[in-house]
């Protein structure tokens, strides 16, 4: 999927128990780096620990050094807060999802900082 393309109605993704966060972040960086937008934001939504936490941390560090803002949302899992302690939230119930997303995006868009 390329930047600007509509999201397909259905994804052909099967649960396998893995969280390949580092690879996903490197793909996003490679895809977004050439874009001309002044602000580049990455929102990580995850329900588990990255397969390789060190590699994920390195990818996040590279993104931040390149000027990307990286935010995280953990779904019933706290691991994202270890990678993004100042720019992540965790939701444990579906009713928390919308308020958490709006609060995080509001903080990011209006303040450009911690959530």
Fold and architecture overview:
- The protein is globular, with a radius of gyration of 14 Å.
- With 115 residues, the protein is α/β, with parallel strands linked by helices.
- 42% of the residues lie in helices and 17% in strands.
- The protein has helices at 21-32, 53-65, 79-83, 94-111; strands at 40-46, 68-75, 88-91.
- The N and C termini lie far apart (28 Å).
- It contains 4 helices and 3 strands.
- This is VWFA domain-containing protein.
- InterPro entries: vWFA_dom_sf (IPR036465).
- It comes from bioreactor metagenome.
What descriptors fit this protein?
115 residues; Rossmann fold; VWFA domain-containing protein; three-stranded parallel beta sheet; globular; single chain; 17% strand; 4 helices; alpha/beta; 42% helix; vWFA_dom_sf
- Helical percent range? 40-55%
Which secondary-structure class do the elements indicate? alpha/beta
Distance between the termini: 28 Å
Q: What is the gyration radius calculated from CA atoms?
A: 14 Å
Uncertain residue segments: none
Do you know the CATH topology of the domain at 38-111? Rossmann fold
> What is the approximate shape?
globular
Order of helices and strands: HEHEHEH
Identify the strand order in the major beta sheet. Answer: 1-2-3
> What is the mean pLDDT?
88
CATH architecture term of the domain at 38-111: 3-Layer(aba) Sandwich
